[in-house]
TrEMBL record:
This is Flagellar P-ring protein. PANTHER family: FLAGELLAR P-RING PERIPLASMIC PROTEIN FLGI, FLAGELLAR P-RING PROTEIN. The gene is flgI2. Its main location: other. It comes from Ancylobacter dichloromethanicus. Belongs to the FlgI family. It comes from the Bacteria.
Length: 374
């Protein structure tokens, strides 16, 4: 019976050699992306876990500026509130999000606050890289972590100084650009590969190259609908008689058989080994054994004879044991992933041994794949 290696994870690059994936699952459209937003705000309503104004003077300045805008003058008056915290607010503006759409925001403390639990974010403008305000955030914070402390000990679970406000931001300005304004449609692959890019282009040409009645004349006899530009992107002609959104919806559902390079990824910290589907090992002989040397010290006390002038001394006693396991020579040949995994399991090696063997096989030139060590 083969022994299954504990704590070793073999992930298959694909469940089947003939498995097909939708284009939308392996790619994105160039120009259709999120936009990052950033803002600075205040969280109030904390139960004595906010910033100390002595260590976080920017929190006091923000409070004074906010009160001044509300017609309350606090200049020259020392503030000692501990229920306020200065926070950084971040959000991602979805592509083509219109005015009035709500988005989630993340909140993180900037001062020495110990917890944001129970706080409320005050109205905070969220700006883009161009300095314009695209959304405004406000609402009750959802904190998953907590902190509890006493006079002699404290416990912290999670990150109580980071929170989230679901649907906490309201889009006030749409990001520039529309789908119809894109100069061209470019499909970008998540995992760049020349073979996958060629198959994506072939699938698009097979679907839209012949159906000219519904979508109009796309391309021509000397110009296909889609063409792979490089290993990352595929250029697609825009159809004249169909909206870009509907065209991309049909295009995204086309099945494509992906191809991945032969790679072996090793995480030495967790003992995880990920072997790709196309990894192969040339015929190679491998020997692996563990040498254990155990040294045990059991000192004994030597007592002199009665009425003698001798002294009581400690006599050292050392026990040395040598044990060697394994050490046999095995022939490993991996024409495919399944055979390779079965051969490594048959040798009964531990995850650390597997990592050492793969590194040695790569050095010997028998591993026909890229070895990535994290």
């Amino acid at each position: 019976m083969r022994r299954i290696l504990p704590a070793l994870l073999f992930l298959l690059a694909a469940a089947s050699a003939n498995a097909a994936t939708r284009i939308k699952d392996i790619s994105s459209i160039q120009g259709v992306r999120e936009n990052q937003l950033l803002g600075y705000g205040l969280v109030i309503g904390l139960q004595g876990t906010g910033d100390t104004f002595r260590n976080s003077p920017f929190t006091e300045q923000a409070m004074q500026s906010m009160l001044d805008r509300m017609g309350i003058s606090t200049r020259g008056v020392p503030l000692r509130a501990r229920n306020v915290a200065a926070v950084a607010v971040t959000a991602n503006l979805p592509p083509f999000a219109g005015v009035g759409v709500r988005i989630d925001v993340n909140v993180a403390s900037m001062g020495d606050a110990t917890s944001l639990k129970g706080g409320t974010l005050l109205i905070t403008p969220l700006n883009g890289p161009d300095g314009l305000t695209y959304a405004v955030a406000q609402g009750q914070l959802a904190v998953t972590g907590y902190v509890a402390s006493g006079e002699a000990d404290s416990i912290t679970e999670g990150v109580p100084t980071a929170a989230r406000v679901p649907n906490g931001a309201l889009v006030e300005k749409a990001a520039p650009g529309q789908l119809s304004e894109l100069p061209s449609i470019v499909v970008e692959l998540a995992n760049p590969d020349f073979a996958t890019a060629a198959r994506v282009a072939d699938a698009i040409n097979a679907r839209f190259g012949k159906n000219t009645l519904d979508y109009g004349k796309i391309g021509g006899p000397n110009r296909p609908v889609a063409m792979a530009r490089d290993l990352r992107s595929v250029s697609v002609l825009r159809p004249p008689n169909i909206s870009p959104a509907r065209f991309l919806a049909i295009l995204g559902d086309l099945p494509v058989e992906t191809d991945t390079p032969a790679r072996v990824v090793i995480d030495q910290r967790s003992g995880t080994v990920v072997i790709g589907r196309n990894v192969k090992i040339s015929t190679v002989a491998v020997t692996q054994g563990a040498l254990t040397v155990r040294v045990t010290e059991t000192p004994e006390v030597s007592q002199p004879a009665p009425f003698s002038d001798g002294e009581t001394v400690v006599v050292p006693r050392t026990d040395v044991q040598v044990q060697q396991e394994g050490g046999y020579l095995a022939v490993v040949r991996g024409p495919d992933l399944e055979t390779l995994v079965q051969g490594l399991n048959r040798m009964g090696m531990r995850p650390t041994d597997i990592i050492s063997v793969l590194q040695a096989i790569k050095t010997a030139g028998a591993l026909q794949a890229e070895l990535i060590i994290q």
